[in-house]
Amino acid sequence: MEWDKIWAVNKKILDPVVPRYTCINKATAVKLTVSNGPEIPEARSQALHPKNTEAGHKAVMYGRNLLIEREDAKSVEVGQKVTLMNWGNITITDRKDVGDSYELIGTMDESDKDFKSFTKLTWICNDPATTIEIKMMEFDHLINKAKVEEDDDNEAIFNRNSRFEDVGIAEGIIKSLPKGSYF
Question: Taking CA atoms, which of 32, 57, 96, 107 is between 20 and 30 Å from 182?
């Protein structure tokens, strides 16, 4: 069976029920300052799953200082309006280069409810009191060939570099999840 079929089965089973939490890769995080955002981070209730209200709710921290993924933000320009997922639209007012990265500054307009037209950005409040660093592991294919043939050299088709580790900054609530939780 090919990996895309396994992923499709997993998505069919897990996607409708597994709660969502936010994590940003620490190494590729970009700072986003919401100039009119809450000066002191504040908790707001948000659904654990966008399409399954039975999954419950969680407290999400909203604040002036956020982190977003560099890959998501690399094409964002000054003057552009983007949507911060589950918050609202923000207009980017400044972009400051910082070494090989950058920082963005923007103004939030929570009354603007047109979310369809703009780039969507996942974010997390950059508040060490309410976030946690986690080890993230990603696994690539163990076999580097779509279909294994009987005469294949197992050593040649085995991917010895299939595990990758990174550090992420995640919502602090995940430290209260029981061992074995899916999210």
Answer: 32
